[in-house]
Amino acid sequence: MWNSQLISYAGHRQSDGTIVGDPNTVHITDLAKANGWAPKTQGLFDILPLIVETADGRISVHEVPKELAHEVEIEHPTIEGLAELGLRWWGFPSICDNVLSIGGINYPLAPFTGWYLAPEISARDFSDEYRYNLLPEIAQALGIDTSDVRSLWKDKAVLELTTAVLHSFDKAGIRMDDHHTAATKFHKWTVSEEKKGCPVEAEWAWMIPPMSGSLSPNYHREFEDVFKLPALIRRPALGS
Predict the structure, then answer these.
(1) The whole model's pTM is what?
(2) How many domains does the chain have?
């Protein structure tokens, strides 16, 4: 599976070099179009088809029924302006660009499904400059003055956007954790493991949320990032 997730949004390359949609999926989108995908629109949130390569090197493209994405429309519980942007996100991450290496055998398709932490969407997918980069528009929709960076408008916008994401997923009945709850759960687990004499190994950047990091009980901890087998190993991204 050449997609990074079973559900994701297209990144449409324009003639002037700009991208409409998710810049993270431009190469996958190009591959899908080169193999027959003809999207009806070129919008911000077009669901990518699945791109499957079989052992003989043959590539096929498969449309994903929209209802299977369980998309969530993003709205703020008290500020009406945000809903007018038409933001939405798929309901759950299903990672499919990992190779499962176990028993000396590498399985090239080993998808797994989890659930989102709110800041993954609010503080990263929507806000990262190399992703949707929508924070200025979001701040404006939320009524936040962006004229002076010392007003901390970026921080305020991410906070309110995270509030909106949590509210919207709760309203849709789709599981989502907040970063404080997830960090506390992990901290309790590390304490329990250490009491048993079991070393806790982790990639620090994945254990600290992308917002309010210093409020995490794990912020001042150090973890050794150790590679061991069996393991899920992420393939290099297409185009990298």
Answers:
(1) 0.94
(2) 2
What's phi and psi for 119, nearest 5 deg?
Answer: -65, -20
Contact yes or no for 142/157 (Cβ under 8 A): yes
- Residues 182-200 have pLDDT tens digits of 999 999 999 999 999 999 9
| Cα 103 from chain centroid (whole Å) | 30
Residue 146 CB burial class (10 angstroms; 0-12, 13-18, ≥19): middle
Whether 79 maps to a domain, the answer reads yes
**229: DSSP letter:** S
Tens of pLDDT, residues 156-165: 999 999 999 9
Range of the domain at 179: 71-93+114-234
Predicted confidence (pLDDT) at residue 240 exceeds the cutoff of 70: no
Say if residue 230 is preceded by a cis peptide, omega within 30 of 0: yes
Closest CA to 126 of 240, 19, 22, 222: 22
